[in-house]
C-alpha cells in the first residue's frame, strides 16, 4: 500500500498541485519576512484578487523565488554522485575544483536584511562563486539574501547580492563564520571581482590549488545575427538554454561570453547552471543546460536591448 501522502498527491490535479506550491511558497516568504508563524489562511488571503496588502507584489515575487530556490536544490541533490560513485569522486578531487578558493584576510562590509547601515566583517576566503566570512554575529537565517561590500582595486567598492548557505561558531570570543553564494551583481562589478581574484591568486598559490583550479569556468556561446537577437530576448528575461558537448555542474556559477560568429557583438555575463539533461544523438551524448543570469533584471533588459539595436544598426 502506498503512503497516504503519495496517494493524496497522486489524486490531485495539476492545477491543484500548482496552487499548493504557490501557497506553500508564499507562506514561507511571509514567515521569513515577519520572523514568526503565519497561518495558511492568512497566506491564502494574499492570493485573493483585490487583496489590499501593500506588500502583495513583493511577497508574490518572493514566493516565485522560493519555488525556484527549492527546484534548484532538488535538481542539485539529484545530480550529486550516487553512494557507489562517492569513492571515485573522492579519489579525483581536482576534478571537483570548479573555482579556486583564495584564502585572504581582508576587511569588508555586510548589509544585513532589513538594516540600513553596513556592518564590519572580514573575508576568510573568496572565489568566483562565493565567500566565507568572519563576523561578530550572523544576523540572518537560511536562504536570506544580504549585500557583501568589497573594496575594489582602485578604491571604489563593489556590492554583491549573496545568499546565506550556512553559518558556524568560531573559537570562544572569535565570533561566527558565514558561507555565502554570490547571486547577483552589476556587470561592471563582475569585471572588478575578476580583477580582484586574479590579483589575489597571483599573490600566492592558494594552498597549492592553482595547478588544478581556475578563477571561473568560461562558456563561449556564438550565434548568427538573427539567432543572437532571438536569444537576447530570453537573456533579458533572465535565462537561456544551451547545448554543450561536456556536462556542466548544476549550481555552479560561470562566465558566459555570448557573441556573433564574427565577434562584432558580444556580451559577457555571469550565469548559474540551474538544470541539465542528457541528449543522445546516435553514439554521441550532448547536454542541454539551463542558465540563470546573475545580474539585476533591469540591467539585463538594458544590455540586451542596446545590443539588439547595435546589431540592427550595422546592417
Describe the structure.
This protein is an alpha+beta fold and 315 residues long. It has three domains: 4-79, no CATH class; 99-202, Beta Barrel (Thrombin, subunit H), CATH 2.40.10.220; 218-313, Archaeosine Trna-guanine Transglycosylase, Chain: A, domain 4, CATH 2.30.130. The chain is 37% helix and 31% strand. The chain contains eight helices and eleven strands. The strands form two sheets. Strands 1-2-3-6-5-4 form a six-stranded antiparallel barrel. The protein has a five-stranded mixed beta sheet with strand order 7-9-10-11-8. A hairpin with a 2-residue loop joins strand 10 and strand 11 (284-293). Helix 2 crosses helix 3 (40-47), helix 2 (14-34) crosses helix 4 and helix 7 packs antiparallel against helix 8 (297-313). It starts with a helix and ends with a helix. Residues 1-5, 89-97 and 206-212 have low confidence and may be disordered. It holds the Pfam family PilZ.
| Residue share in helix | 25-40%
CATH architecture of the largest domain: Beta Barrel
Mean pLDDT: 81
* CATH level-1 class of the largest domain: Mainly Beta
SS class: alpha+beta
Numbering strands along the chain, what is their spatial order in the largest sheet? 1-2-3-6-5-4
Strand percentage: 25-35%
Protein name: PilZ domain-containing protein
Organism: Halioglobus japonicus
Domain PilZ: 95-198, 210-303
InterPro entries: PilZ_domain
